[in-house]
Amino acid sequence: MATVHEPTVVGVAHFNAAEDAAALRGAMKGFGTDENAIIEILTSRSNAQRQAISQAFTHEYGRDIIEDLKSELGGHFEDVIVALMLPPAEYLCKELHHCMEGMGTDEKVLVEILCTRTKKEIAEIVEAYERLYNRPLAEHMCSETSGDFRRLLTLIVTAKQQGARDEEAGVDQARAAEAAQQLYDAGEAKWGTDEEIFNKILAHESFGQLRAIFEEYKNISGRTIEQAIKAEIAGELSEALSAIVECVENQAAWFAQRLRDAMQGLGTDDRTLIRIIVSRSERDLAAIKREYEVLYDKTLVSEVRQGETSGDYRKALIALLGPA
How far apart are CA 186 and CA 142, in angstroms? Predict the structure, then answer.
């Protein structure tokens, strides 16, 4: 996966934090709230610009902009706006914490956030998590997951010191062939599967290196690494490893499928819909929109419009998605 940079949100050229802060204060002050002004300003600014607005707001009015927004807004619209206002790593930490708190853990969220990020992004999340919740992410995760799935996620969040997912390092073809052989020997070539080898390689190598490993694997085995994982490994671990493989091959398509799942069936998974649209808006949301149309023959914008979103919530999501 060559890192695709196709954002739908790029920020504005002639940015003035104090002016935006004043406009937002005006939109929330007095009788009624000007939701359109809030949407227009916050969905078109980059996250860095929103952080500057937040600082200017506190400086000028001695108030916390997130608290003010929360007191004026409600429902899923509030969720979108608060997600936009948080620094990206903090927002993802909040989502990780939420998916592990209370009864049961939402493993799909752990996979979506941790199996699709680069080394640098994981390092930021790990640092922010401990700062926000006063406990290491790995420790919290270990108490909520088990078995080989737990081992894979722990490797992803703790291997940063050993250079896991180093996207800057070039692709080493000889090492790729060696790793592909190790994967083959650990799975198809033997009775029973050595999940530890799959975990070590898929958690540690960069996305570029993994692509080379998967190509070599096909040369050795005659079938794809996805086919091998589905045949050899079951349950949550299989889902997590498959997510890594699919993101190496086409990350935008993987997120498009997640968005489709969030909008299909009984009721919308609003939390996932918001998380993907917000967290990918400055990365590859334009590519995700394109892949969505290729896969489902419908535009993502039309699906959000026709789905179960409404009012200002829908307007904010559509604004982040940009033109159809």
Answer: 25
Structure tokens at 176: 């790729």
Helix intervals (H) in 145-222: 147-158, 173-186, 195-204, 207-221
Task: For 36-65, give one letter per residue: b (16+ CB within 10 A) or e.
Answer: eebbbbbbbbbbebbebbbebbeeeeeeeb
**Triad 95, 154, 48: Cα angle to 5°:** 40
Closest by CA to 165, choosing from 132, 127, 210, is: 210
The answer to whether 36 and 73 have CB atoms below 8 angstroms apart is no
Residue range 192-211: mean pLDDT, rounded: 92
**Six-digit token string for 287:** 């590519």
Q: What share of the chain is helix, strand, coil (3-state, %, to 5)?
A: 70, 0, 30
Q: Is the pLDDT of residue 1 over 70?
A: no
DSSP states along 116-130 = S--HHHHHHHHHHHH
Whether pTM exceeds 0.85: yes
Structural tokens at position 73: 């807004």
| pLDDT computed for residue 83 by the predictor | 98
